[in-house]
């Protein structure tokens, strides 16, 4: 186990908690997953960072960019193959052959033990490049059998590929479904290439939609978990995505990930060049909230590049360039399966303990009528993984935002920000932007915060809090909720009107060049 892994484990093993008498390092019972989840499903999702919000604090993924071609055109997509400065889907720094991809997976997995999933998500479409995609899976599954395989597709080729997908034990497939009505679809897709012919307009959208829904049914019939991605395009498919949600739910999709359209003109997409805007954070959250029901909504998607490596929200791809991978002697790569398993076992014990602690806190809060009645608050958290408040305010490139009440602390999105501590350079500007980005939060929790940013935040009625440093995020937030409500009651804290429908001012915040738009997902 390398020193980074050791630090990470130490970080998650030694929390200082005031949450309860049960130490978080102890293992209070078995790790069976949430009570309401089928154990077979839990086993598939428990260490997949995209399929489980909880898992994304502990486990990493990597994308291997082996699939350059695409069989359709979306009006929001412009693929780039040598781009290191844009952080959005469809861009990569370098292409990979299946052989180099497998070598890269081994190199990353031996360096980053929390990396549990390899996905193929472009830069084009995984199933428009089936030979490269399945060759890559074949090589990875031989060399690294504990790694989960995952693919993303627009679904056009899916019905023809389901058997091959099942043959490679791929348990997770993402299908992008933006419409179930060809009238809507013709505004999103200028053409598709199907049966050796280019189709346009409503005919194209009809074929695509039928193939997507058929593919989805075929996957769920084989118990393969399907995440449906939908890009929310205001005025085109925003209201219609409720119908999409209903149709995919009916066909057994496991998770629905409604993502905001990214349409900066400089990316050169059709929508970007024609002024099609993306949704505001408030619009996005409203739609996600209205679709949330029996079906899980994904709210922690970071809209990653096609060659992303690391925990969601961090990108370590620059550490694993083709040049570095090519220079590695495969015999020097230490793929230590036992150490990887040991790491996962420890994480699962910690998660199980945290779940029990949360239950105890919630049951304690439930005894108090004032807390039960109090409206939810939004709190921002600086974390670098491990499910803890463990990042210095000035080192945060994103803040996670939680909606907290007496019953739960729910992840509702993230805000990307400029780094505050950059050697004293431009600090005031970045602090202003961070304050704007967190304007709807009552507090920001971090491992440490300096006097100056604390004062500026307080002027905007956002408390900078570092006393929960290195504690588990959700227990700390639930404990803080009690403190906040009591503080408001006693007059020590000035209340902030915040509800789940609060207007999040994403429009007021300009993301730094090269980063995706700020979202509250
Ligand atoms: C680059 S695609 C690769 C996988 C596959 N070709 C597909 O479309 O599903 C990965 C995801 O990024 C999404 N995406 C691409 N460009 C986007 C944009 N400009 N805004 C939001 N999502 C985008 C796609 O819809 C898809 O869900
Ligand atoms: S299907 Fe995927 S890769 Fe192809 S154009 Fe659409 S978003 Fe881009
Ligand atoms: S784009 Fe979203 S679903 Fe895909 S790896 Fe990133 S966080 Fe996961």
UniProtKB/TrEMBL annotation:
Mention any Pfam family matching this sequence: Radical_SAM
Q: Which GO terms describe its molecular function?
A: 4 iron, 4 sulfur cluster binding; lyase activity; metal ion binding
User: Which domain of life does this protein belong to?
Assistant: Bacteria
**Which UniProt keywords are present, listed alphabetically?**
4Fe-4S, Iron, Iron-sulfur, Lyase, Metal-binding, Nitrogen fixation, S-adenosyl-L-methionine
The record's annotation in InterPro entries points to: Aldolase_TIM (IPR013785), Di-Nase_FeMo-co_biosynth (IPR003731), DiNase_FeMo-co_biosyn_sf (IPR036105), MoaA_NifB_PqqE_Fe-S-bd_CS (IPR000385), Nase_CF_NifB (IPR005980), NifB_C (IPR034165), rSAM (IPR007197), rSAM_sf (IPR058240)
- List the cofactors: [4Fe-4S] cluster
Instruction: Write out the transmembrane intervals.
Output: none
Q: What Gene3D superfamilies does the annotation carry?
A: Aldolase class I (3.20.20.70), Dinitrogenase iron-molybdenum cofactor biosynthesis domain (3.30.420.130)
Answer whether the UniProt record assigns the keyword GTP-binding to this protein.
no
Q: In what pathway does it function?
A: Cofactor biosynthesis; Fe-Mo cofactor biosynthesis
Q: Which CDD domains match?
A: NifB (cd00852), Radical_SAM (cd01335)
Show where the Radical SAM core domain sits. 56-305
- Could you tell me what this protein does? Involved in the biosynthesis of the iron-molybdenum cofactor (FeMo-co or M-cluster) found in the dinitrogenase enzyme of the nitrogenase complex in nitrogen-fixing microorganisms. NifB catalyzes the crucial step of radical SAM-dependent carbide insertion that occurs concomitant with the insertion of a 9th sulfur and the rearrangement/coupling of two [4Fe-4S] clusters into a [8Fe-9S-C] cluster, the precursor to the M-cluster.
Cite the PANTHER family for this sequence: FEMO COFACTOR BIOSYNTHESIS PROTEIN NIFB (PTHR43787:SF13), FEMO COFACTOR BIOSYNTHESIS PROTEIN NIFB-RELATED (PTHR43787)
* Recorded family membership: Belongs to the radical SAM superfamily. NifB family.
Q: What is this protein called?
A: FeMo cofactor biosynthesis protein NifB
